[in-house]
Amino acid sequence: MSNRVKKGWLLLLVILGIVFLPTGEAAAQQGQVTQPAPDRAAIDRGGVAYQKYGCFVCHGSGGAGGVRNKNAITAEQVAGLIKVAEGYTIPELRQKILEGMLIIQKKDPKGPTPPLSMPSFRGSEEELNDLVAYVVSLDTPPSVVSTTRPPVPASMLGKGNCRVCHAAVVKQFESNIHAKAWPEEDSRSDIATTCAVCHGDGDRHAQNPSDLRTIIRFNDVSSASAHDKNAACLACHERGLRFSWRGSAHESRDMVCADCHKIMAPASDRRLLAKQQEMEVCFQCHQVRRAQLQRTSHMPLREAKVTCTDCHNPHGTTAEKLLSADSVNETCYKCHAEKRGPFLWEHPPVAESCLNCHEPHGSNHASLLKSERPRLCQRCHIEARHPTTPQPVASRFVFNRSCQNCHSQIHGSNHPSGVRFQR
Amino acid sequence: MKRRITLRALIGALTAALMLAASGGLVRAQTIKNGHVEIGQQRLEGDRSSSKFEEYRHIPSGLFLNRLYLNLGDQKNHRYFQLWATRPAQENQSVFLQTGLTGKVALEVQWDQTPHFLSMTGRSLFAPSTAGVFTLPTQTRQDLNKLVTTDTNPAVAGVQPDMTAIGNLVNGTARGFDLRTQRKTGKVLLRYTPAQEWDVRLQYSVENRTGSKPLGTNFGFNSTELPEPIDYRTQELKASSEYATKRWDARFAYTNAAFNNDVKALVWDNPFITVEKVASPSRGRLASFPDNTAQNLAFAGAINLPKASRLATTVSYGWRRQNEPFLPLTINSAVAALSTYPALPATSLSGKVNILNTNITLTSRPYRRVSVNARYRLYDYANKTPSLTFAKYVSYDNGLSGDARRSLPIAHTRQNAGLDVGWQFSRGASLKVGYGWENWERTYRDAPKVDEQTLQAALNLTPTNWFVLRTSYARSDRKTHEYDAEEHVAHFTYPQGESGLGQISELRKYDMAARTRDRVMAVAQVTPVDVLSFSASVGYANDDFTKSAYGLLGDRNNNVSFEVSYNPVARFALFTNYTREDYKYQQKSRQRTPASGSNPANDKPANDWQSDLADKANTFEAGIDGVLINNRLDTTLSYALSDVKGTIATRTLGATDLVTTAANYPDTKSKIHQVAAALRYHLSDSVTPRLEYRYERYEATHFAQQNLNPFMGAVDSGTSSSAFLGATQPGYKAHIISFLIGYWF
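^ inputs. structure came back:
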């Protein structure tokens, strides 16, 4: 039999299978999903329970679904309930509602925890039966969506009830440094007010979770402005390193705290950073700096012995370039205190700014110099004789340490005869 | 002695920590919450005979402890104790410990060691000396002296020594050693929070830096490069307190820092002269970095006002002091015995610099979509060091100069002011315009007053959740109100302009010169779908020194970067980034010779020359992160390259009668390849062995390091009486194979 003939038989079998396959209704009749005859009264009572226990908040009116649940395996949405009966038996459905779904499977295993989860059912046995009947009855989407949303049950409002829908997130939060700062059992706070400290009052959000304006979110889909998002953090943190945040370079570029910090799912061991390494956080925008660190002349940043915040305070400072010290030189003196002086003989550009000669982020020239010697020195020294000659490459003025073969004390000399930085 | 003090300080700090831990009940009721330990076995292969391989790191071969993490705490998370250790017990170890009662008291103890390997090809006639005294056997010096003073070709004017013989003796006598330094830093921070609003901190740190590094010394144009012994200790004590409410914030800080150098001077024998005479120094002496202290008292206060306004101010006052006793003018006893040998004007500098730094900032949002920032800053570097006049001085321990010298306490005051207005004209879109002013007033510098004005605009766009664009442009105009090129000469002549040509009058030094500056920057981040993110940035900067006829004329650079991350399925991710940078400089000079005897000075435009310098850098990285067997085996592969090329082109600009050496220098090149591969097997939730392979190749070509040897007479015949270290940093190729087992508990 040729391949073509084989394929023809296969195609015929598939078509026959489709035509003569038992329908869902027939399968149900055969006992695959055994459903009782619809009890209109039970369905109606179940609809009341569906509202009473707030199922509609996430599953939507009439079980339409569609509420966003980031990184949930169900297309990042809360699943709808239409035709749920086709996937569950009645006992399975009862069990599901009774136990809830506290852990929602992730779409991306390395991604964030889906924020919404399903609480376990707390109603009576009768209400559970009615609810099951109602859910099973949902076989078509509601033709008309009510414009007036039913009121959210009290159990989802007020203090302590964020975990009704966000159990996994709340659990994750318990190990967060912020939870330690606002312990739940502390009389000052409970979990709702802890969440509200940053996200604002959650009641409006519980009533309409799809509306982004009802709560302060810190992710990209938030409708809050950068200022509003940052205000939530600054309410507690506008002190210490954040003293000069307002008006700082990063604030003026509409950056938000959450661009660098991931409060709920930090990637770093310390400081709740969005990346495992602090430098990687900075490199998200400062890509050239990442390249400069690979230069032959570099500080030990790529060896993780120095990091960006050893010199800079990204939260704002009063000095240039977000330097954490009062000036460029005072920043450098943290590690190079020997060059602090004052010296008897000062080299003026050195005393004013190390950046006149050095590029601290990495250089192709020795000692992090901005340019090659002797040309770097010859930019300012046009007096006479050897500093003014171009100098051949095979010369003591060029090879090895160039000008510093003799003028080694270029950062300043304290020797009475060191006027030319040779002693 | 110094080490004992450091050790005592650390032991004291640790004792205090333990006492605190005991009294505060930090240890009580603690249980191990989780932890991680990783050990490994490593093998190194390849040609690793370069200091660049372990420049700032230590890569052991054999068994080693790679990481340790311990997290202890009580059930309520009130008490905590965490310990991180990286490469413990190795030369580059780092240990960080934090413990405390949440919200009440915290103690952090940190210990870090950072090696800095400078060269492993260094060779010196001298044996390394930790005291800074370098001596040579008399016989060696006599032999060298004989060689450099014996004329092998009387037909040619001047002494023509046997360069080969000198080279053989210098290179043959020089002994090799490593040039490296090691920083050891200990830090203790105690933080106490008496109330939620109140924060008190006390911090002490000590750093010891030891080892040796190359240092150039000279007798005239004859160089003697030495392995300078480094024995520094830097200590800092900082106390601060902050009280912050929702309405206002006030804080005080006091810092006291001290630098001590145990090697006060370097003394070395002149390898080529044995008998000390005037104009014939047999020894040299150089002053090392002097001890210094710095104190700073700072206050910062802020008040939050209506309309989301905040008024903040900081005031700090600092004192820097340096009073190391002066060395004599020379070590040359013959010079010191001269009747005209002068007394020093002071026994030490009494160096005093006081720094006042004040800032005031007002930020406000008068309307919800409008922000206003106004700021003023004053940084006053007041140098109170006395100006000392030395009746004579001694050039390189050679002989008494007939000229006096006067030290000048350079000082400056810098003021900045600015106003920015931001307008959020749409959701996720804002425009900011600003004006900035900077003023420098300098004492004893060429340009006593410089003003710079800057106009800038920035546009921030986040119209959707998948697109971010930030752009900015700034234009600055710096004006130098007056410029006195002769002020430069005042720094090394007294009375000013005693002889020679002085500084060329049309030079404008680039840190003070009139300048227009343009800066353009744009960063875009695009995430069209969850699995793909793209970011790119461009930058352009141009400094045009509009009034400079000599010196640096232009400084221009531009860069382009992009970064892509593609994560099509949960088990596979690909990332890459690339950056290209171009740097260009243009500078102009003139070869000049002063009048000498009957020869007049030669100082004319025909001897002008110009150099164009450029650096081009390409940096690339790409890698994949993949799961081979779900929850069992995953892998990471990456490759990184940094490739930089530098050029220096030099040419004359006219019919020169003096410049003979204007030629292009050979290109400088450096290239670093890094390949990394890792295979991780998740044996269980708590045990993960991994196999790593790393290949590194570093290549460098630099004209300044070509053919470097202790004796360089074959390169420059003028160095017959010089001895260098020949310290280079050649390329290397290294294979690092590691097997590590991580255990989480």
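Chain A is about 30% helix and 0% strand. Residues 18-33 of chain A have pLDDT under 50 and may be disordered.
thumbs up if we can close this ticket
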